[in-house]
Amino acid sequence: MRDHRYDILFEPVRIGPITARNRFFQVPHCNGMGYRDPSGEAAMRRTKAEGGWAVVCTEQVEIHPTSDIGPFIELRLWDDQDMPAIARIAEQIHEGGALAGIELAHNGLNSPNLISRETPLAPQHLPVVSWNLDPVQARAMTKADIVDLRKWHADSVHRSLKAGYDIVYVYAGHAIGGLHHFLSRRYNNRTDEYGGSLENRVRLIREILEDTREIADGKAAVACRISVDELLGDDGITRSEMEDVFGLIGEHPDLWDLVLGSWEDDSVTSRFGPEAEQEPYVTGLKQLTTKPVVGVGRFTSPDTMVRHVKSGILDLIGAARPSIADPFMPNKIERGDLADIRECIGCNICVSGDFTMSPIRCTQNPTMGEEFRRGWHPERISVKGSDSSVLVVGAGPAGLEAARALGNRGYPVTLTEASRVLGGRVARESKLPGLSAWIRVIDYRLQQLDRLDNVEVYRESPMSTDDILEYGFDHVVIATGASWRGDGVGRWHTHPIEIDSSTSVFTPDDIMAGARPAGKRVVLFDDDHYYLGAVVAEMLAKEGFAVTLVTPVPQVSQWTTNTMEAHRIRARIMEAGVDVRTDTAVTAVDATGVQTACRFTGRTGHLDADAVVMVTARLPHDELYTQLHERSDDWAAAGVRSVTGVGDAWAPSTIAAAVWSGHRFAEELDVPRNDDPVPFRREVTQLSIEPVFSTPVSVS
Ligand code: FMN
Question: Is the CB of 262 under 6 A from ligand 1?
């Protein structure tokens, strides 16, 4: 039953000509599926609609080939050929019971147009601000270009209405939507009526809002997504300037959707920003308009949501990442099942789907992106296919998820953990600076296991091969995790390096277990390139060690460009006093420190150190798996039918991958084997148009 304190979240909100049935609003977010996997996207959005979000939006939709931000895979509405995909998504959102919003985007300066090869368009001549630093410049838009842009936008509004959308966006946010570039002094140095004064810089947004409203004509609501502060001081959009923007066009849209700065600022990870971080920036803007306001802030606490509504900051609770982690969050709040909410941990692995052009993934929600292609659902799983019993060995992220999902299917499950602490690597890593929110991966699963009478959990229960064969479970899942190796093997060295035993070598596991170097000078060799190297470096530096981080790539924690954290990580470790040596490898550990080599020239060097921390690679704990398979002749007598490795014990990867792997085992147990080499459904390009190849003209 719903707690009455949360009633206000379930009040309807009028948005122009339409009414949202509650205050839960899934704001636009990309998902790495877009034009390539539109049915995958449609199923994902539908799941959220079923989960209680009153409004479910698409990601940014490119309205024209000059707005091509490939290789990112977004939706397109370049012409009518894109209509079936766009319409299918609206239809599925409606089937799920929500209103459908579409974020029309002309990306201007942000679109390198690599696929279309059209010339990028911007307020002034400037290099494009694409993520890959593409050597492409945008051309300053002429008046004719502006007329064209208005027409393309208008065309896309017509198409959106035809496709059935209830809310049509004008996108002026994140320094991505091209209208943002017109508004911002950083990008707009025009001297015509579209540059200079605020009134001029706002002109194109105003015109496009007016065009959109005229076409929507009461059939759909018009939303405007805008960055309320670019966090650049007077060089960009400021919060006080935004008040003037509201003075000029505050009544133009039917809904304001407020975001902060660039996408990196807006989707800040939990390591660098708390829930509701945007509150000071958005507070007060609602009072400058009669139109409803939606805002974001990795909202997972219904109390925070209520406070935002009651104190007049927001009308609608916007969410991207919390809706990814738990597409059913609104329904769970409504039912009063708060412990059932899979709270977003703010790791931004969802963002990495976009950056790696692969379907979206989520640490908390392994079904995200798998709704269509594998038929997975965040709240429903098929009932068990037999009376088999399952033993899960290891209660890390993979084991916990396997036990939870198998338990939900109705199997009798025994989960054993060698240590006293449940959670494996997540329990250890969430104690590191900035990673405390990650404990939610364990909390959610333990709370769920508590409710399952058919799952028994045993701590301090190390299992041997003999034990397992003696107990005679039908299926055995090995989820025993992995350990960091200390021999230097990783991407750079594929064989152990020379290590002089007089210099102590630590692994992240040693450091997380509380071990510390005896001396002060520490070299940390990061050949892993995700978060851990920099987190450990920061922690040791703050504890007073003199830390030098050595990495063979150009950037610290380079892979975190995919979670949009790399720049913050670098700033944080600089502030912590860590000395950084990029493009350098540790090649040996000697009696006085480490030998190094420049990645490019091979030039060698030496760094004095009392200790070395190797953050290079991990080795799976697969001994049990291997031993059990060596004794496969004994399985029949013991009643064992399968032994499967999952998560890091099978192949070390991200926490998201471990959770997914445990979940996959649970989904597929007793499901008839699919012999198709592609274990999921996919959409392939229909060769529907007769090819007409141009005939080369020969010149004699
Ligand atoms: N915002 C947009 O306006 N358009 C997008 O296409 C878009 N893509 C996103 C993709 C991902 C994976 C995420 C996490 C965010 C994206 N955003 C996009 C920003 C979100 O809409 C939102 O403003 C931001 O993540 C903060 O909200 P949250 O804390 O609820 O995630």
Answer: no
pLDDT average, residue stretch 518-534: 98
The string of DSSP codes covering 407-473 is HHHT--EEEE-SSS-SSHHHHHHTTSTT-GGGGHHHHHHHHHHHT-TTEEEESS----HHHHHHHT-
- Among 613, 175, 560, 557, which Cα is nearest to 349's? 560
Ramachandran quadrant class, 212 (left: phi over 0; alpha: psi -120 to 50; beta: rest): alpha
Pocket perturbation via mutation, ligand 1, pick of 24, 30, 48, 358 by most ligand atoms within 8 A of CB:
30
User: Which contiguous run of DSSP H or E holds residue 475?
Assistant: strand 475-478
Going along the chain from its start, the domains and CATH numbers come out as 4-355 (3.20.20.70), 390-481+621-668 (3.40.50.720), 486-619 (3.50.50.60)
Q: What is the pLDDT of residues 601-655, one digit of tens each?
A: 999 999 999 999 999 999 999 999 999 999 999 999 999 999 999 999 999 999 9
Task: Give catalytic residue positions.
Answer: 30, 171, 174, 266
Interatomic CA distance for residues 350 and 352, integer angstroms: 5
Q: Does any ligand 1 atom lie closer than 6 A to the CB of residue 267?
A: yes
CA-closest candidate to residue 174, choices 217, 236, 87: 236
For atom 12 of ligand 1, the residue with the nearest CA is 351
- What is the CA(563)–ligand 1 centre distance, in A? 12
Q: What is the pLDDT of residues 323-341, one digit of tens each?
A: 999 999 999 999 999 999 9
